[in-house]
Design goal:
six-stranded mixed beta sheet; CHAT domain-containing protein; 49% helix; 13% strand; alpha+beta; signal
């Protein structure tokens, strides 16, 4: 019979393309890892030893295959010893222990006789998973040493074929060491909460150290958390000897920017370190706390704590070694060795700290002392030397020794390429090396270093701080100027490079939502499968956070949650193999251009310590502009702009046009010509720019006495704000808007809690200030009018709105919001810092009838995460739902707004300050009217805002020209896109 290629069978099963990541070389403790070729989507795969499966013949080898970044196996392959004749293949495919095991998980059609590569006889089974009905493949083949049994997701079929026949391609692309460790951590951490295997503790600690050194802090967190769980189960939660794992966990949380969680663990560690059997524990605690303080920007406190750590470590080192006696020989005392290593690292970090201050001349001596201590321990590894060289280069730069810094960075990069190839430390060093080469005019060499580092970042799907990325953009711009013929390609490279910069937590949450929509492409079953995985991740993180605060008795729940997450990931790998790519990869300029309409432009911006860059995509081309605006100056201008818009009492401020003009001049003015004629401007704000609606920037001079006639940016463009270019591309790549059958659900006019309810929720001894603020959350009768008018405009039914006492947390949960295209929440919002006893951003609703306290009147961001939406637009017509500006703006957006994005909103209409009732009602109503007539969410909001501006002083009060009234609303995300044909009614002026 003719050979039927397995890849052809895949086409019949309807498989799709998975993500662009790879697993890699094993490290000690992770088990042997072998290349396994590529799957049907071109993903690199590896094979590792796997659990034994039931079989009717002796098992020679059992392997699990991992592809494309997934931490659950894509396939399992079992090599048996015995005859591989046709009768045996038929028997294995039709019955026996393996087939019984397979049938418990999948439903298979009758085996089909075929041949694999090289004419190898095989039996192919086309299957579907019982959980969800997703495609699955199984086969029995005559392998080189006996029958081979294999099963897995459809896209893994080529890998299964290669392993079965022994025809696996050598090597995999984009190798990086920590990916294999992530798989080991996932396995061991799942077991840690359900077993008492103390032997796994050291293995997990070693994995954590490996991952920490590779700067894979998230996976290191998993390893240390699992090690801590094992140790606490055996020794008890308050055993002082658990402090080592506890401190490592805290530091890796801090390294991810999760300072509050880290601080709670460090607080737990303090009394344990005092009683720990490890004499180095107190020194290590001071050391790690210092590093966490530096991470939080508390440099003075960090330096003081680092000096404490230095003294504590030094007290444990033999005096002769501290005096620089190189002939003392290697140290054998483990505590002394540990103290010397700690002291070496402390002095290296001290060198970094003092190099930034007035004592920079001390830095070279500290580096020299650090290196000497390493030599004396006999543990001067390539990785530690590379870090030391990189630190030494930083101190050389601060001392004006550029040539020395260049040599040191080149040496560090070489050592990292050997000690940690393909990992973040190598990428960081390559970027630093590129910046030094560019600084001395060696641009081609600089680009070689930048591009090598960028390849690592993309392969590992990680990002760098903005200030490391900016020199790459500077160098590309200089080359574009010098080589005009290559300028278009270099500017596209600059746009891709800008995506390598780290952004706020908002991006991660919003991208989760857009990736879910993109992976589903309108298939509700796929969307539900992805949502289950995302919810499983959220549930597991919540349990871990609860455990970190000291809660006991959670391990069984954590073990169950880990099992649920593993099952959910396995399902998504089969249902939506492209999900991880949508979730983690960046996009290039061509992908953005393909997603834009003919009269749209996207502008993204990066602001650093010394300057910034603004990059625009329009019509398939990229334009770039260097900006003198720094992150600090942008923050100052944003705060000044907001202060002139809203005064301390929440009323219109004394508006000064200068900050709005300065922001436009620093960000968009250099690209104004290229933006001419763009009806919609999509902006990707950075840092403090998250705290303003861009429509209120001024394109020219303005008279504070006639603000209605001022040249606001909204007069030129409809504005869409997105957290990242990838978000826009993913949302639009799905090609579909909401499939919800019902138009609208509205909520407003809440009933405030009584003073007695507030007193019980905010006790006077701890929360008196909160109680006073909460008592000021008065009823908003204007929101009733706003919601009722929206109900009329959208054609909704009376039962689609909840007003007054009916607007409760329970009514929000029971409103079947997943069936509504527009959801409207008109109420107060409370953001971080406004109520110290309320830990999360929240919206205010009516308290539950007869409630003893006011707790049920606050719907927290974590509650909103649990909603399941399919909404084109969620209108948060509340007080300050977009953020208070500056750093707080980003955090607020990553609270309420990110929760609603995660829940399934494609777009949000949020407010950046407390709104005026009349202006808000008119803005929302006119926006909805225009949307109902066919306008996009962006165009509809712009039309409503222009109405307020144009009618200020005519049919509306002249004050409405002040941005306090017309500018608070901003569209975040895509929202509703325009219908093909727009009704003329959308441009008509409504009756006021």
């Amino acid at each position: 019979m003719p050979r039927l290629p397995l890849l052809l069978m895949l086409a019949l099963l309807g498989c799709a393309r998975p993500p662009d990541s790879a697993y890699v070389n094993a490290m000690p403790g992770s088990g042997p890892v072998d290349p396994a070729g590529k799957d049907a989507r071109g993903e690199d795969c590896t094979a590792q030893g796997g659990a034994a499966l039931p079989a009717d013949l002796p098992v020679i080898r059992s392997r699990e295959v991992y592809c494309g970044g997934w931490t659950q196996p894509a396939a399992r392959v079992v090599q048996l010893r015995g005859p591989g004749d046709a009768a045996r293949l038929d028997a294995l495919a039709s019955g026996g222990l393996w087939r019984t095991w397979l049938d418990q998980r999948v439903t298979c059609a009758a085996p089909q006789a075929t041949t694999l590569a090289g004419g190898v006889p095989a039996r192919l089974l086309a299957c579907t998973r019982k959980n969800g009905g997703w495609p699955h493949v199984a086969l029995v083949a005559a392998g080189p040493d006996g029958p081979v049994l294999a099963d897995g997701v459809a896209t893994a079929a080529p890998v299964m074929e290669g392993l079965a026949t022994g025809r696996v391609s050598a090597g995999t692309a984009g190798q990086a060491r920590s990916a294999a460790l992530e798989i080991a951590v996932r396995r061991l951490s799942a077991e840690a909460f359900s077993a008492n295997d103390v032997g796994r503790y050291e293995e997990l600690m070693n994995l954590g150290r490996e991952l920490n050194q590779a700067e894979n802090f998230a996976s290191a967190e998993d390893a240390y958390r699992a090690a801590l769980a094992l140790q606490e189960r055996v020794l008890g939660r308050n055993s002082p000897d658990t402090v080592t794992a506890l401190m490592h966990l805290a530091l890796n949380l801090s390294n991810q920017g999760r300072g509050q969680e880290a601080a709670a663990l460090f607080t737990r560690a303090v009394p344990l370190a005092e009683r720990a059997g490890d004499p180095v524990a107190r020194a290590r605690l001071a050391h790690y706390q210092a590093l966490s303080l530096f991470q939080d920007g508390q440099d003075a406190a960090g330096l003081a704590r680092l000096r404490e750590a230095e003294a504590l470590y030094a007290a444990l080192v033999p005096p002769s070694l501290l005096q620089g006696n190189e002939g003392s020989g290697l140290v054998s005392d483990p505590a002394a060795v540990s103290a010397m290593l700690g002291l070496s690292e402390v002095r290296r970090n001290l060198a970094r700290a003092v190099a930034r201050g007035d004592d920079k001349a001390e830095a070279p001596s500290l580096i020299a002392q650090s290196r000497r201590l390493l030599r004396q321990t006999g543990l001067e590894t390539g990785l530690l030397v590379a870090r030391s060289l990189r630190t030494e280069a930083g101190t050389s730069i601060s001392l004006g020794r550029g040539d020395a810094a260049t040599r040191q960075l080149e040496a560090a990069a070489q050592r990292f390429s050997i000690a940690a190839p393909g990992e973040r430390p190598e990428a960081v060093t390559l970027f630093l090396n590129g910046a030094r080469r560019a600084a001395v005019g060696r641009r081609e060499e600089a680009l070689t270093a930048f591009r090598a580092g960028a390849a690592i970042l993309r392969a590992r799907q990680i990002a760098l701080p903005i200030n490391l990325v900016l020199p790459y953009l500077d160098t590309l711009d200089a080359e574009a100027t010098a080589r005009p013929a290559e300028a278009p390609a270099l500017r596209k490279e600059a746009f891709a490079a800008a995506q390598l910069a780290q952004r706020s937590n908002t991006v991660r949450f919003v991208q989760q939502a857009s990736a879910r929509i993109g992976a589903a492409a309108g298939d509700a079953r796929v969307a539900e499968a992805v949502r289950k995985l995302q919810d499983a991740d959220q549930a597991l993180r919540a349990l871990f956070a609860e455990r970190d605060t000291g809660a006991a008795g959670l391990d069984a729940r954590i073990a169950a949650a880990q099992q649920a997450r593993a099952e959910a990931e396995s399902t998504v790998a089969a249902a939506a193999p492209g999900y991880r790519q949508l979730l983690l990869s960046s996009v290039d300029a061509d992908a953005v251009a393909a997603s834009l309409g003919p009269k749209e432009a996207l502008v993204t911006m990066l602001l650093g310590r010394s300057h910034g860059w603004v990059l625009m995509v329009r019509g398939g081309e990229v334009r770039t502009a260097r900006s003198s605006l720094t992150e600090a100056e942008a923050g100052r201008l944003v705060n000044a702009l907001r202060a002139g818009t809203v005064d301390a009492g929440g009323r219109p401020g004394r508006f000064d046009p200068a900050p709005a003009q300065a922001l436009h001049a620093g960000l968009l003015a250099p690209l104004a010509g290229a933006l001419e004629g763009a009806e919609t401007l999509i902006v990707v704000p950075d840092g403090p720019l998250l705290g303003i609606p861009f429509g209120m920037l001024l394109t020219g001079p303005a008279d504070p006495a006639a603000l209605g006639a001022a040249p606001w940016l909204v007069r030129r463009h409809a504005i869409v704000h997105v957290p990242s270019p990838q978000t826009l591309v993913t949302l639009r790549g799905a090609g579909l808007g909401s499939a919800a059958p019902m138009p609208y659900a509205g909520f407003g006019d809440f009933v405030p809690p009584t003073p007695a309810q507030l007193t019980r929720s905010f006790p006077v001894d701890r929360c008196a200030a909160d109680a006073r603020l909460a008592a000021g959350l008065v009823r908003l009768p204007g929101t009733r009018v706003e919601v009722e008018e929206a109900e009329r405009l959208t054609g909704a039914r009376p039962q689609d709105v909840r007003l007054g006492a009916e607007f409760t947390a329970a009514s929000l949960r029971s409103a079947d919001l997943g069936q509504r295209r527009i959801i409207h929440l008109a109420t107060h919002a409370l953001l971080p810092g406004e109520l110290s006893c309320l830990q999360e951003p929240s919206i205010v609703v009516s308290a539950k009838a007869g409630a003893a306290d006011a707790d049920s009147a606050f719907v927290k961001a974590s509650d909103l995460l649990g909603l399941k939406l399919d909404a084109d637009l969620v209108i948060l017509s509340a007080c300050n739902t977009g953020g208070p500006g500056g750093a707080g703006g980003g955090e607020a957006l990553s609270g309420l707004a990110r929760a609603l994005f995660y829940a399934g909103a494609r777009g949000l209409m949020v407010t950046h300050w407390a709104v005026d009732d009349a202006a808000a009602a008119l803005t929302v109503a006119d926006s909805l009217r225009r949307q109902q007539a066919g306008a996009s969410s962006a165009a509809a909001l712009r039309g409503a805002q222009l109405l307020l501006l144009d009618e200020a002083g005519r049919r509306l009060p002249e004050a409405f020209g002040h941005p306090f009234f017309w500018a608070p609303f901003a569209l975040i995300g895509d929202g509703r896109r325009a219908a093909p044909v727009q009704s003329a009614a959308a441009e008509s002026t409504p009756r006021l």
